[in-house]
Structure formats: C-alpha cells, structure tokens
Specification:
By secondary structure, the protein is an alpha+beta fold. The chain has one domain: Ribosomal protein L7/L12, C-terminal domain/Adaptor protein ClpS (Ribosomal Protein L30, Chain: A, 2-Layer Sandwich), CATH 3.30.1390. It has three helices and three strands. The chain has helices at 33-44, 48-61, 71-83, and strands at residues 21-26, 63-69, 87-90.
Length: 91
C-alpha cells in the first residue's frame, strides 16, 4: 500500500489595474449608415457585423460604446472619427 502526498501550491498573482475608457459614438442626422459602418471597420477594427450592429444601436438608442480600452489607444481613434465628421467622445 502506497501513500501519496498531495501538495497544493499557493500562487499570488499580481494584477495591474488599468483604467478602461470607452469611445461613445453619438447619432447625427447627416452621416449615412454605410459611411459609419465603413468608418468603424477602418478606425475601430470592427468586423462588418459588429460595425453594423453598433451603427443600428447608435441610430435607435442615440449612442453606443464602439471601442473600449486604454486612453492612449482610444485618443487617436476618437480623433480620426471626429475628423470624418462623426460625433464621438471618450469617457
């Protein structure tokens, strides 16, 4: 008869807390659905389906969080959306 000893190791994991921000895209009356979809694909790296869904949410709800991440990543993306005439902000 053999005896086996089981050991359980405790592992401490250090986590770095990162402030997550969002780009909020607001509805407007002058940009077309196709333009907004193409912009989200190009600037926010959305899939075509994801871009279409976000565009529908913006249209029906008035706004949608289209990208989440660190501020330094979102700032140039938001600036590009603004330069295209879209209404966006980082929160």
């Amino acid at each position: 008869m053999s005896t086996k000893k089981q050991y359980q190791e405790g592992i401490d994991v250090l986590e770095q807390e990162v402030n997550q921000h969002e780009i909020i895209l607001w509805d407007d009356d002058f940009n077309t659905f196709d333009f907004v979809i193409d912009s989200l694909i190009d600037i926010c790296d959305h899939s075509p389906l994801q871009a279409e869904q976000c565009t529908m949410l913006v249209h029906y709800k008035g706004k949608c969080a289209v990208k989440t991440g660190e501020y330094d990543d979102l700032k140039p993306r938001c600036s590009k959306l603004l330069s295209l005439g879209l209404t966006a902000e980082i929160v």
